[in-house]
Design a protein that fits this description.
single chain; alpha/beta; seven-stranded mixed sheet; six-stranded parallel sheet; 27 strands; about 45% helix
């Protein structure tokens, strides 16, 4: 549909946007329409999205759209301008505005665009609370803290002492012996203990949809309540047993006979058992001889423990056997008796959990009020209470919010929950507001985060206008036809229709058939091997495929890790897309082993676990007499030394030594594992500094961080760092892939999404009708069974939608694997059955896929392990700065911050500054027809703007462009996109194109074998390589004098003693980490192992003669460039880059020799390059203007390496 036809009337409207139909594009265009057509100012528009990332993306798209409109009006060119914008603009000036009024309005919009409120729902609630805290009764000093795990721990610990330890000894004995099953799936919390309550308290505190109600009865004495409860429960049980116990026994005998008649043998029920009814009756009589209310405490454990009553007569046991043997048994006549048994065997413990949790919750509420702490769920609860529960219509805040926002747009509406929507309706669903919701119910896959598809469907029913986007801009026509066919009946379980989509992506890339089904038998083959072989076959048949265009989608994170390891074994680089916390990686478990050995280096168990891990990789079976083994003793002694020198050397350095000493191939050949190890080591180092290197504190903190429920280190800074997202096959969970697209998508596990889901587990159950939380540890209880049925159905429906998300990520080719041993699933029953000719899509020749010899084949085109950057970070010392110096120390430094005059500045670690230098007139050869004539011709980038923004733009173009490519259209597209992104006139695109072509075609000189960038295979070029170097020196600070000393070494190289004096003028005073980005690294040689590796750095300095506004290559001769290098401290930058490269090569090259492999640095002054004439052999010995080359001064680099490691003599 044409989104220009969407009505802007004040009412509730909904846009249903299937995957790939341009949801973000639509939202950004609707903002533009609202501003112009409804004449609503940006400050009166509210745009709500699901995450901070999507908020940032939407803001960028809106700003780009405004600039695109401005460029179209000024240039009157339709290149790269969509028809939607063009047609809308033409109607705008025809019906509403005069043409000459638009640009002034755009300028006003650009000035006010930051007033546009784009935020998450939590952010919106926080803004209301900040603005109206008095009216909402929230203290001025309230602060948001969603990481209050220590508060939960403290509350439970205190209550455990105050309440639990004062319980009757028989009650404690019963509780300690009770085994329960929970969703937390941890052996440590399969009993009723403090860890269970910490998890329960955290979950109910952070829940904003379902309410955990505290009853007045829960505030009393736990001891007395439990005794009273059990006394009553026992009396009622005895009475009901007398009435129905024998009948139940007889029914269970019949049940046992039915099992035997079917040829089975149950360990519990038989057709001819001993009279268990009599045994229970005698047990009851013995207890009742001396039973009174006053002595109930003496029999608490006896009547609540696991025994014959629970193991034979209890419905929990009966139903398990019923499920195992599929024998029907009707217990409806015994519901009352079963309820009485439940009260004794589970209800008693359930009451304890409920009361203890209520007391914990009450204390938490008071403590949060005292400390003025709010978490994210509190934000919503405060707004809900004010505007929904109290429902006061005359509140000043309510009126002001309604008046402030006149246009409300909601992104990802399918992920909105009921409470959020009720608040939005209360505020904005009236005739005074334009309320537009955009979403896709088929992509509602975040129920675990609170998303509720029912909210979407209810809002759809209430909408005045409903629009459906049917034009798909992502997927090719061939593949969209397949998707339409698969979903021609819609999503059956979820009862959602799928519109027939129209493909607008008319581009075609020949990757073979657009859709393939690969059938296999899991009983006969290894699926992962099958997958790798298919990948190899695909790559061999289509060698033009770039690995980064492929994605493999999984159900779980562990599958991502498994596939990544298998790809690594097959020399296929990969990139983990799923956003995992660093503490959820393999590296966290490895470092846990190492930390345990530092804490207790004499523990045989600790040492054995370490030596059998990937760190050392010794087979314990090969060690004779393990207790007296020399290997064990040596490693134990080494760990003891490391433990004693931890504070002196730092944790990062110890990890470095561990890896360096044992050089396990499973570590040093696994780039991602290396990166993760050092990223996590840095976090651990920071924690050690805080605790003055106390290992006992560290181990407690680390255990909490490994547990997702008690973890504090959350947020983007603790996600796995990915330095190289564009080189390798993408591996992602389906959840993480939402919103992404790839040329080729492979789905190996969709067949494993069952028709029936894995059943939900307690003890927290959520009642979708009452919106209350119900606590029960027993899943067979009738109340739980009803709630489970609803949850299980919702889970099945969401699984169906998860498949939809997976199938709609592909642009050109989709491959799904199907297990023929398990066809009773959603994929087969609901989707593949819709194909009119399924045989057409089956992979015909799959003989190679299970061929072990084929598995061993390598694909040479894709073998390049030099893709990632596992930085060899040295150590970080314990810094204890004095009171006078503490504000002067830079804990995180960069080249930019070091050369800044302000020592406190924390500059961007990328150097994009666009320097301008004026020089005196220079004389040059006047020979006619000489090369020097070219040096007098202005470089095309002379006309490019100056300044930081322009420098970033040129860097981005060079970062994105494949030097080895001859595709000029690709270059032109990149240039136009980046010019638009940085608001630079598109008329300069031809100048930029010529300037970039000079960069890739010019000879780099003799030292680099006269190679050009266009000659270097793209697989060997490394761009935008980040490094992090730990710096410190025996507890001291690294200062300018330390760095200056470097340039007094190797005096035959450029930038020696005279330059070292300039270094001393800098105010370097740093510890912590030195970070930076290297623009480009290339190898020059026959193969990677024997190559010299060179650093390339792009400089956009504008050097011009005084009075002349153009950049001439003659202005960029050796002496002028050298002066420019010194003036801006590029020598310091180049030496730091070489240190980072030196450490990288030391790890990645097996026989690394810096004299052989460390080439040097090449500074390319982009505005100073002459026209490339590399084909003229007579000119190769001429020093090319604009290129400054320096060989690596090895002694200087070794000095810096030692300085950072504190290994100088």
């Amino acid at each position: 549909m044409d989104i220009n036809n969407i009505k802007l009337e004040n009412s509730l409207s909904l846009i249903e946007a299937s995957a790939g139909t341009g949801k973000s594009f639509t939202l950004s265009h609707m903002v533009l329409r609202t501003i112009f057509e409804k004449r609503i100012n940006p400050e009166n528009i509210l745009l709500l999205s699901f995450t901070n990332n999507t908020c940032n993306e939407l803001r960028t798209k809106i700003e780009e759209r405004i600039i695109k409109l401005e460029n179209y009006i000024i240039n009157n060119k339709e290149d790269n301008i969509d028809k939607t914008l063009i047609n809308w603009y033409k109607d705008l000036i025809k019906n509403i505005y005069k043409e000459n009024n638009i640009i002034p309005i755009i300028n006003n919009i650009k000035n006010d665009i930051n007033k546009l409120t784009i935020t998450t729902f939590h952010g919106f609630c926080k803004k209301i609370i900040d603005d109206y805290n008095i009216e909402l009764s929230t203290p001025l000093s309230s602060h948001i803290d969603n990481n209050i795990d220590q508060l939960y721990i403290d509350i439970i610990n205190d209550l455990w002492i105050e309440e639990y330890f004062h319980l009757d000894s028989e009650i404690i004995k019963s509780i300690e012996n009770k085994k329960i099953s929970t969703k937390y799936n941890n052996k440590e919390i399969n009993i009723i203990n403090k860890k269970l309550f910490i998890k329960l308290l955290k979950e109910i505190d952070q829940e904003n949809i379902y309410e955990y109600k505290i009853n007045d009865i829960d505030k009393g004495d736990i001891n007395e309540f439990l005794k009273e409860y059990l006394f009553k429960a026992w009396e009622e049980f005895c009475k009901e047993w007398h009435n129905n116990g024998e009948n139940l026994f007889n029914e269970l005998v019949k049940f046992g006979k039915s099992i035997e008649e079917k040829g089975f043998k149950s360990r519990i029920y038989s057709g001819n058992p001993r009279n268990k009814y009599i045994k229970i009756k005698n047990w009851i009589d013995n207890i009742n001889i001396n039973f009174t209310k006053s002595n109930i405490n003496k029999i608490i454990y006896e009547i609540s423990k696991d025994d014959l009553l629970s193991k034979y007569f209890y419905s929990k046991t009966i139903l398990k056997e019923n499920k195992k043997y599929h024998i029907d048994i009707d217990l409806s006549n015994f519901n009352k008796l079963q309820n009485k048994i439940y009260n004794l065997k589970d209800g008693f413990f359930n009451e304890f959990i409920r009361i203890f949790l209520s007391k914990s919750k009450s204390r938490l509420i008071k403590l949060k009020e005292k400390l003025n702490i709010l978490n994210y769920s509190d934000l919503i609860k405060i707004i809900q209470k004010k505007y929904l529960t109290e429902n006061k219509q005359e509140e000043r805040s309510l009126t002001n919010i309604k008046n402030k926002y006149k246009c409300i747009l909601i992104d990802e509406f399918q992920d909105t929950d009921n409470i959020q929507w009720n608040i939005i309706k209360k505020l904005f669903n009236d005739k005074e507001h334009f309320l537009l919701c955009v979403g896709d119910p088929k992509q509602a896959i975040y129920k675990f985060r609170g998303g509720d598809i029912k909210t979407y469907l209810n809002a759809k029913r209430d909408s005045v206008e409903i629009y459906t986007l049917k034009e798909n801009y992502r997927t090719s026509e061939k593949l969209i036809n397949i998707i339409n066919c698969l979903y021609r009946k819609g999503l059956l379980n979820s009862e959602l229709k799928h519109p027939r989509l129209i493909a607008k992506n008319k581009s075609t890339i020949n990757y073979g058939s657009a859709f393939k089904i690969i059938e296999f038998s899991k009983r006969e083959i290894n699926l992962e091997q099958y997958l790798i072989n298919y990948l190899k076959q695909l790559l061999l048949n289509h060698n033009e495929i770039e690995l980064e265009r492929i994605a493999i989608l999984t159900l779980y994170n562990y599958q991502c890790s498994e596939i990544k390891n298998i790809l690594l074994e097959n020399d296929l680089s990969s990139n983990l897309v799923n956003k995992n916390n660093i503490f959820d990686t393999e590296s966290s478990r490895l470092l846990e082993l190492f930390i345990n050995c530092l804490v207790n280096p004499y523990s045989l168990r600790n040492i054995i676990l370490l030596i059998t891990s990937k760190f050392i990789q010794i087979d314990v079976e090969q060690i004779e007499h393990i207790e007296n083994s020399k290997e064990i003793d040596l490693i134990s002694q080494r760990c003891k030394i490391w433990s004693n020198t931890l504070k002196e050397k730092g944790f990062i350095n110890l990890v470095n030594e561990l890896i360096s000493h044992f050089r396990s191939p499973l570590i040093i050949n696994n780039n991602d594992l290396m990166i993760n190890l050092f990223q996590l080591s840095e976090i651990i180092e920071n924690e050690l500094i805080k605790s003055n290197y106390d290992l006992n504190n560290l181990i407690n903190w680390y255990q909490n961080e490994l547990n997702i429920e008690t973890r504090k280190m959350i947020g983007e800074e603790f996600l796995i760092k990915n330095y190289d997202q564009n080189q390798g096959i993408n591996i992602s969970t389906i959840h993480s892939s939402k919103g992404l697209e790839f040329d080729i998508v492979i789905c190996p596990y969709l067949w494993d999404i069952k028709k029936s889901p894995i059943h939900s587990k307690g003890p927290i159950w959520k009642n979708s009708k009452s919106k209350e939380i119900y606590i029960n540890i027993e899943e067979s209880h009738h109340k739980v069974q009803n709630l489970k049925l609803i949850e299980d159905k919702d889970s099945t429906n969401e699984s169906e939608r998860l498949i939809y998300v997976a199938l709609t990520r592909a642009k050109y080719k989709l491959i799904i694997f199907n297990n023929i041993d398990n066809e009773d699933n959603i994929l087969n029953n609901n989707l593949l059955s819709n194909l009119t000719n399924k045989e057409k899509y089956l992979l015909k020749d799959s003989s190679n896929l299970n061929d072990k010899e084929f598995t061993k084949q390598k694909i040479k085109n894709y073998q390049n392990s030099f893709k990632k950057n596992p930085w060899n970070i040295s150590k970080k010392q314990n810094i204890q700065p004095t009171e006078n110096s503490i504000n002067k120390i830079n804990l995180r430094s960069s080249y930019s911050s070091w050369i800044s005059k302000n020592i406190n500045i924390q500059s961007n670690i990328k150097d994009y500054q666009n320097k301008i230098s004026l020089i005196k007139n220079i004389s040059i050869s006047n020979k006619k027809n000489s090369i020097y004539d070219l040096y007098k011709e202005a470089n095309p980038l002379s006309y490019f703007p100056k300044g930081k923004n322009a420098g970033i733009c040129l860097h981005k173009i060079l970062e994105r462009y494949n030097f080895n490519s001859m595709d000029l259209e690709s270059l032109r597209t990149i240039i136009k996109e980046e010019l638009r992104n940085y608001d630079i006139d598109n008329d300069l695109s031809e100048c930029v194109e010529e300037g970039i072509l000079r960069v890739v075609n010019i000879s780099l000189g003799e030292k680099l074998q006269n190679k050009r960038l266009i000659d270097i295979p793209s697989s060997n070029v490394i761009k935008e390589l980040r490094y992090d170097l730990a710096i410190s020196k025996s507890g001291l600070i690294i200062k300018s004098e330390d760095i200056a000393e470097c340039f007094c070494i190797d005096k035959d190289y450029d930038f020696a003693e005279n330059y070292s004096k300039k270094i001393k003028d800098l105010k370097i005073f740093s510890t912590g980490f030195h970070s930076g980005f290297i623009d480009c690294i290339i190898p020059i040689g026959e193969n990677l192992q024997d190559s010299k590796w060179w650093i390339l750095d792009w400089k956009s300095n504008f050097i011009s003669e005084d009075g002349i506004s153009k950049c001439l290559p003659q202005n960029y001769n050796y002496e002028i460039m050298k002066a420019e290098m010194i003036n801006h401290h590029y020598p310091l930058q180049s030496h730091l880059y070489l240190l980072a490269l030196h450490r990288l090569l030391k790890w990645r090259l097996k026989k690394y020799n810096p004299l052989k492999n460390l080439g040097g640095y090449v500074y390319i002054f982009l505005r100073g390059l002459p026209e490339a004439l590399s084909e003229n052999k007579n000119l190769l010995n001429v020093k090319t203007p604009g290129i400054f080359i320096g060989s690596a001064p090895i002694k200087r680099i070794n000095y810096l390496d030692s300085l950072f490691k504190d290994e100088r003599n």
